[in-house]
Amino acid sequence: MANITHKWDRICVVSCTHAKYVDKRAFAELVKFRDRWCKGKNDVVAHIGDWVDLTALMSSGAEEGEPLAPDVDTGLTHLRMYRPNLLMAGNHEARAYHLRNSNKATTAWAAHKIVEAMEECAQKLKAPLLPYRGAFETYRVADCLLTHGSVYGEQSCRDMAEMYSTNEIRKVLYGHTHRTAMASARTMVGGTAYNIGSLTKRASIEYSLSRRATFSWQLGFAWGEVCRSLNQSQINIATCEDGGTFRLPV
Q1: Which residue in 221, 214, 171 sits closest to 197, CA to CA?
Q2: Which residues, 6+ apart, have CB-to-CB distance to 162 below 8 Å?
Q3: Given its phi and psi angles, is residue 143 left (phi above 0), alpha (psi -120 to 50 degrees) or beta?
Q4: What does the CA dihedral 124, 128, 133, 138 come to, rounded to 10 degrees?
Q5: What is the CATH number of domain 9-240?
Q6: Which residues fall within 8 angstroms of residue 116, CB to CB, at 6 or more apart?
Q7: Phi, psi (rounded to 5 degrees) for 161
Q8: What is the pLDDT of residue 67?
Q9: Can you give the pTM of this predicted structure?
Q10: What's the pLDDT tens digit per position in 68-99?
Q11: pLDDT above 70 (res 41)
């Protein structure tokens, strides 16, 4: 019998860096790890959404006191540093897409220019940019499904496992809630969801300060290996507390 060798590729996934609100030390560690971990042409380097924040575009129009330029410029600079080969828009990027049709001319123009800059950045990175479609925005790598995330709540991780796991999809990686967690689906086929955390500095975003859930935010990202031919993967979540460092392979 022929000796069949199955190739394993590496994967690195981050979510919710939120531009100027990023934890700079944690982000620098991520970039260094990405550079040494993902070197193969088939390795997956993904940002699964909320690489900008766009507080200024919350609700139906521009909010006062939140300049757009530092937000967008910083978010795109971080993408160029991280160099993803897969980009997913999150609900924060979606603000710009939605407000291109605003009845306020200045808001519509600003949103149009932001979308233009984001898409140009993705094009230069040669990274496909998946539009935010809530629960329907997904990307599959071997037995892993990547998605930004679409549900909140204390049981969101379990809910995500049950929403997406099948006989072929065994792991669901998402961000969105800024916390880290693992939970299994309560179904016959099973499956596990990985809430991979955020690199946003806790208590840095004004609108989150009055939410008790902000206490659960944790710095984190996912890394591991995937084998497409076997439809298998090994996924780990790197976490650390504020001021700490990630424990990562050399």
Answers
A1: 221
A2: 185, 186, 187, 191
A3: alpha
A4: -150
A5: 3.60.21
A6: none
A7: -60, -40
A8: 81
A9: 0.94
A10: 888 999 999 999 999 999 999 999 999 999 99
A11: yes
